[in-house]
């Protein structure tokens, strides 16, 4: 976080001016580690001793200089002060010790008083420079205050020199003499946290002491006489026995000593290095021993050259390092590609062990984590071993399970990243095989891991990592090739990749030619407030890393997203102003990314598409996107190519916006507007659409049809469509065979139809004994909102076939080409229009050959055989009057049955044999039929349902059998009440559902907590199998994924089985390994989320035990899984899921209690939720409205959480994003310093969740770091903790009830739900129908 440096010359004369410049240059080399303030200390002249100190010094008093700002501020200040004080810069010293520090603030704002060296007080008897954080500084500060010490700074560091003085004074009074090392050793006994320290004191002139625990510290040695006589020494022992002239250096990084010497020693944890009289002593501190042991250490030789730490002809280090990548990749692979194979000497002895691993766990932070994520699919593919991704800080927060059978791969550019090293110690303690991937030979990571690979990318000075990222990916690709080299089945694949590796530097040189193009693109984005980057498969990591680069250096709120999750919230942000980069290079996900581009274009998105060379017309046939073409390489290496344009974009954006590229705001390299303007930009435009966090592009429309023997059709169609919360971008209906499309919401259509009915003098009082009508509300996937793109879509003139459709036809372009050759003309931009035209083509062809013998269901069956994709369809045709045919594959479709006389029917068979009066309904959702009937049937995939003459026939389509089989199905009874789909006294459904949570949680638990234990009947028969699983895999999308993430720590804790988190779309994109020994848990509010259901089929095919967590009895998820739990949260109409989220968490908590031993009282947990806590937190409603009013003009919002509340941060940000259309991002607090901190200033609102749990102290530290950067903080804490989390009173505080840690997310999310709701209302947006989103399926 900070850079510390020291210089001691022994038996060689150096002028004070020279010493100053050595210290300044050392800080310049370390400035990338921190640059908000700096300071130095060196000796004054002996004659300048101050008698006022009350103590005689053995040496000269120190001169201490501190300054806010960058190093050059300090240089100017020092020279000005030196002139003012008439300090003699020409004075020479044969022995002198100076220390220096450049700061990255963690405690206290940048200011001279908070700069280092920190002092013991008057006289500067002890001075300390420090890199790290002292976690117990508050306790030490209170103790020292009671002993009469006064504190001048806000830092944690100041306690250290004051503690040293306390120890010195006490020892001096009791014993008389005490050595410097004894003082430091006693100080170390009292300190907790991570630190590297250098001490200087006039009581011990010309001595320096350094020690470390968890932070990097290097000793550099330059023997000045070694060139002329004798051999240079090779270990520290030699330094203790010779008095030759030498220079000794302490530094946080090797780059600060390379210009002085190549001989160095990396100091180990708990070592104390004492320099005295030119001798170096290394002592090993042990908390349990009075005296430290002496240690002999060998020196290492640094291979770095001075040229590597200079910019050369480039303007910035980041620019240089981007353009060095052809060379750095060459050095990464040098000597490792041999005879068509891979040779990694550092792994050779451990390959067999790795191949037998239970799982591979990738662990890293920031850019290194992203590099591992890019390599994950290839490692899974070649090794066949499941790969789990872990952010180092999150693994530590959760104390996630690591086993002896695991291979833990730690990735760190420096090899000194603090969280990664702590995670390494944790994995070693648990017996895992630990592999290191690092750029730094001799780093702590390379020394402590069992084996590994150096990436050899060369020195990287720029704070934003570039060349190390690409070299990490290539190194891990080579690792996967080496591990998988024993599999014959992948030989051809491996050969192709190895060939691709050889040509990779050449392709990187080619993509670097886009530099000018990226500068032009940057100039067009300079005024943008936000940027989204969408990727998937291999390039999900590219999206994350590209966005991180922009965030780090350009200070623009950029967010990388999984393209498959776009429809689960982020799509709400899309408009013509927000720039969006979509990565759509050629790989297995290419066609899916084409679909994403179509959906974004249909919402007038401002698209920048990255594609393979020659694919510009394929990804953007309309020419309305900006296209970046890159060379095509092997899919697993494509991320290396694709990240480079984004690195260049980030670089040029930063320069054009006038920010510092190499020293971005708030970051350090770790070794370790007016209302009217706002309204004009964010006011929802007519023709927007919506989708919820539980849906997918195949669940995006509302379709409805009714067949009746006696009814007024207008009222039925309007009332039922208007209550379907599925899409409102454009609507249409068929009424008396009248087709009408209307852009906008349902009421636009209502007004238009009644107006046209009046104009055409249509008799609305006409009665029909039999009639069939269809209706549709649209969520656009293909084509902008417009009448021509609305449904029903038609076969052409005369509307011979009409279709309403929910889903996506993936082969519509090929069908369109075929039909065009048969003279069909197309009027819309939709994928749907091919369906009615294909029906007419089938009908015409059959009529020509067979007369009128073909039935309506036969036509539909032939159409289905041609269609690919997911869909629910309802067909209507004047050729088959009063008939309707419906079919489905992958999208939900419901048949509702209302028998108007006699006994109600209980199965479809009875409907085929009676002619009694009845009303029949098709709907995408049960909520549209509940006011008409409670008898329903959920259609299965590939079923065709034909209504004719009041009879219902069901056929099962089999692609391999010509004639479909007839099916008999039982009807179900709907338990939903009409009141559940009404708002009651609330203004909006979302508001109602937030306030219903005390009740919904009660129903979730009703009957399941008995006699101090949990009873879940749906799991009872499978408990033993679940307990013997090798792995639990949580799979979901959007809000459901976040709920599973909240439950993960408790599941790991109680059942002791490793838990892997999978976003459903990403699992499918990667084809990630799922095994028979896995327990796959699928979470979906509706039970009909398309990606989740596809992932379920994938898991079933692979033999896993599949468990469902859903709100919908009778849903596909509940039918297809082996067992599961219904959350019973009640009907949820609002697009933004609220009560289902909290019920999902509670259901999964009960599941963990049922599967594992009951370690805590479930009754107490039940009481904690039911008896007042949720009701209590809902009383914050008014407070959240006031908070919302203060945030109304903000462009962005960040939410930080960790441990149990990492998911709360993600879900809270998602709620704000979904409904209030504010770019909000949830983040892991432990990752804050790895990029997001650059965004922090006094304008950006930041919510920090800091309720009482195991991570509470860490969150306190996060708050301190944010306050030191003048962050605009809103802190959520437990009741009574306001003064603890924000003692300065400079934060806004939200106090919530404290409950058991695993249930705290249930409480903590509610204020954020309320905040999102009130923000949306105050900003004038539609709460229940947010722009671009639609709910998948509501529930009973």
From TrEMBL:
Keyword line: Aminotransferase, Glutamine amidotransferase, Repeat, Transferase
Enzyme class per UniProt: transferase
Pathway(s) annotated for this protein in UniProt: Nucleotide-sugar biosynthesis; UDP-N-acetyl-alpha-D-glucosamine biosynthesis; alpha-D-glucosamine 6-phosphate from D-fructose 6-phosphate: step 1/1
Entry's Gene Ontology BP terms: fructose 6-phosphate metabolic process; protein N-linked glycosylation; UDP-N-acetylglucosamine metabolic process
EC number from the UniProt entry: 2.6.1.16
Pfam families: GATase_6, SIS
Catalyzed reaction equations: D-fructose 6-phosphate + L-glutamine = D-glucosamine 6-phosphate + L-glutamate
Entry-linked SUPFAM superfamilies: N-terminal nucleophile aminohydrolases (Ntn hydrolases) (SSF56235), SIS domain (SSF53697)
Annotated SIS domain residues: 350-490, 521-664, 1022-1162, 1187-1330
InterPro entries from the UniProt entry: GATase_2_dom (IPR017932), GFAT (IPR005855), GFAT_N (IPR047084), GlmS/AgaS_SIS (IPR035466), GlmS/FrlB_SIS (IPR035490), Ntn_hydrolases_N (IPR029055), SIS_dom (IPR001347), SIS_dom_sf (IPR046348)
Superkingdom to which the source organism belongs: Eukaryota
TM ranges: none
Presence of the UniProt keyword Repeat in the record: yes
GO molecular function terms attached to this record: carbohydrate derivative binding; glutamine-fructose-6-phosphate transaminase (isomerizing) activity
Residues of the Glutamine amidotransferase type-2 domain: 2-278, 499-950
Protein name: glutamine--fructose-6-phosphate transaminase (isomerizing)
Species, as recorded: Eragrostis curvula
